[in-house]
Amino acid sequence: MDVLGRTDEGDHVSHAAQTRQAGQGGQTGQSGQKGQAGLARQTERTGQLGRYLATDGSLGAPVGVDVSRPHAGVVVGKRGSGKSYTLGVLAEALGDAAGVSPVVVDPMGAFAGLAGAGLDVVEPRVRANALAPRAWCDLLDLDETSAAGTLVWRAATEAGTLAEMRRLVEAASADDSARRAASNHLALAASWGCFAAEAPRPRDLLADGAVLDCTRLQGAALQAVVAAVADDLYRAAVAGSERLPWLLVDESHACATGVAADAIGTLYTRGRAPGASVVLATQRPSALPDVAVSQSDLLVAHRLTSRKDVDALAATRPTYLAESLADQLPSRTGDALVVDDATERTCTVRVRERRTEHHGGERVVDRREMTA
After folding, report:
1. Domain count, the chain
2. What pLDDT digit, counting tens, does each position of 48-65 carry?
3. Which of 97, 146, 184, 237 to pair with 86, CA 20 to 30 A apart?
């Protein structure tokens, strides 16, 4: 499985585009250059990430991510290096591709501009029964064997909504202190405002793609949303969804851990078989779940300066890297080292300019540099 497909001319396009071009005898595009027809079709099955960056600073052929197949990846880089911008570039490419839909978890409000690419920007709402009973106890920091934890577990097993869970707990035959503790914890969950009986179903999120505006959520509430959405998208893929899901999570060190860790781990270890993809972006690779780095077939690494983060990333990287990861990381904002584990290839890329507005604080490149 190639992450970055390659034509005979050295331009990176998807395997599907290669097949179509071969069947047409390598026809020329409107520019008259051989191979350009395949590149012109990139928007259908290959999303352009940027262009090759040579050691002398010159720019080469386009580099694209093959979106015709599912992937698991990570995008890393210190704050201001361009990681969130790169995640937005990938989301744009997925929004253009046929048969796939991006769902972007946006904790910092950086991706609202993707509405210009046709994605719906929505407040996150999830169903209470999207979380397993054990997850509810973990979410509320309750020992599942305690009296209050047992009440919450039982309510999560029997109820379909948070309101029903609260009613079951209040009516339960239990010690007053246990019932009061369980009620108070569920009241806290209700105050987050992210649980709703009429929450969007996976098919709703996948219809046009979506940006989940999580700017008002933090901590356990944010993790609950990520857990529910990740599990829903995985189940949608298993059920044969017409549009294959890509879950993109920014600031994942804060929201893909805790109660969300199991659902995210499932996407990394089992998601590709039914067609579900996942990409986590973070400034702290050392805080990522181990499975995220070890199971990724695509790594996009911007500048990192923390030795702890560099070491965490390098510890799980393959032996085919010709030199140390630290020596290959770029220093310029918007440049990235791309590691394609499927084909055991690496390249340095200058990430292309976004077509839609980026609401984060990072600026990648001047337009003139991308067309030089």
Report:
1. 2
2. 899 999 988 899 999 999
3. 237
pLDDT digits (tens, 9 = 90+) for 225-259: 999 999 999 999 999 999 999 999 999 999 999 99
How many CB atoms sit inside 10 A of residue 59's CB?
Answer: 17
Q: Can you tell me the mean pLDDT for 340-362?
A: 84
∠ Cα 282 327 11 (to 5°):
75
Least confident interval from 5-14, 44-53, 101-110, 255-264 = 5-14
Q: What domain range is 155 assigned to?
A: 128-191
Task: State how far the alpha carbon of 359 is from the alpha carbons of 85, 107, 193, 216, 222, in Å.
Answer: 9, 12, 24, 16, 20
At residue 356, φ and ψ (nearest 5 deg) are -100, 165
228 and 327 together in one domain: yes
Last residue of a domain, one of 165, 191, 217: 191
**Residues composing the chain:** 372
